[in-house]
Every structure is written in structure tokens, then in C-alpha cells.
Amino acid sequence: MRLINIKPNRPLAVFLTLLPFALVFIAYAIGSDIRLTANPADKLLPAPSTVWDTAARLTTEGDRRSGRILFWYDTWASLKRLGLGIGISASVGLIIGLMIGLLPLVRSFLAQFVAVLSMIPPLALLPILFIVFGLGELSKVVLIVIGTLPFIIRDLSQRTLEVPQELLVKAQTLGASSWVITLRVALPLVMPRLIQAVRLSLGPAWLFLIAAEAIAADLGLGYRIFLVRRYLAMDVILTYVIWITLLAFVMDWALRRLSRWMFPWAEEGL
């Protein structure tokens, strides 16, 4: 039997899924134990129990000055910025992507322009954004939009171009206008790809958000990580990193479930 034809059963699939996480945890625990044995005051690799205790403290105890549980305020601030940025990118990207894919005039006008924009490193524009939009919320949201929008536009425009021409011809034969073709033919075929594009954009979006919060913010997950780094508070940093990873995973899982629920026909081959 060829290796490519071997499919794991359900228990084995679950085991193989959890195995890399267990190996990483074991490797970290061993490394932490070695360092703490050599130097009990070592801060680089705190014990897993220390990280757990820190996480419990951060999520339940209020700040000494304000009384607020800053962990949840940081989470809400970051999710609000991320949601606005991704939401704007998805909405604008869908519209422009459909226009580029369906309208040759718009494709000639914008396709290469968007391609060039996608080559600009978004973080290189961060100082310009702070100068133009200030240090408030707007510059952080704009950075996420600039970082994710060109990719979404290019992805959706390519998917629109892949819509079978016979569908477009049949719709025109039946008297459908360009607007009707966009809404009734292209849009349903592109929507599953939009969700996939948003899923793929989550990683870069988190990167841009954390970078912006690290430089200019007084609240947020990225701000807190860079604030405590000067004290070498690795237990706090690891707690926030794990939490960000969990949030990203839940968002990705929710989008995938949404796609399967709304467009099951698009998920049959996955």
C-alpha cells in the first residue's frame, strides 16, 4: 500500500493533531527545568506552572491604580481595531475584486495598480500613517487595511476571472444586466473565496496590529507585550502570546464553520 493512500481513522487523527502541541510543551518544560535548575532566578523560560499562575492573575485581578482587569480591556481594544480593519478590507476588497474580475475597463485601470501596491511593505508606511492620521485608532486601522486589502482584492479578482464564461454568456442571453450578473452569478461564487481570503489575512493583520500598538498605544495586546518586555516578564509575555494565538485560532475556526454552513458546496473538496 502506498503511503499517500493511508488515511488515519478518527482516534489516530486526533492523536496526530495533538502530538505536535504536546511535543512543544514537553520541550519547553524540559528547557525551563534545565534553566531553572541552573539558575532559579532565570526569567527567560518560566516554569509552565508560573505561566499558568500569571494567566490566572491577569484574567481575574484588577489593576492597582484603576481597578480594571487590564487583560480584558487590552483584548477588547485589539479585537475592535482588528475587526474594523478586516471588515473594511473584506468589504472594499469584495467590491473592487468583483469589478476588476468582471469589467475589462476597470481591470485595465486598477489591476496593475493594485499589484504594485501589494508589493509595498505595510510596516514601512507606519511612520507616514502616524504623521498623516495621528497616533490614535485611525492609523492602526488604516495599517491593517493597507496590509490586507491588496491581497484580498487580487485574490477575489482572480477568483472572479475564473467564473466559467458559459455562465456569463447564458446570463447575458437571458437578458441579465451587468448588475444582475454580478449579484446573481459572480457574487455567490466569490463569497466562499472571500471567507478564505479573510482567514489567510488574519495572520498578517495580527502582525500589523501588534506592531502599531507596540509603537503608539496605551491599551491593547501588542502594547502590553512591549510594555512588560523591559522588565523581562516572560510569564506575562507568554500569557499574551498564547492568548493571541488562541484568539486567532478561534477566529479562523469560526470563519471556516461559517463557510461550511453558508456554502457547503464549496467545502466538498476540502
From TrEMBL:
Its main location: membrane. The keyword Ribosomal protein does not apply. It is found in: Cell membrane. PROSITE patterns: ABC_TM1. The keyword Lyase does not apply. Belongs to the binding-protein-dependent transport system permease family. This is ABC transporter permease. It comes from Yoonia phaeophyticola.
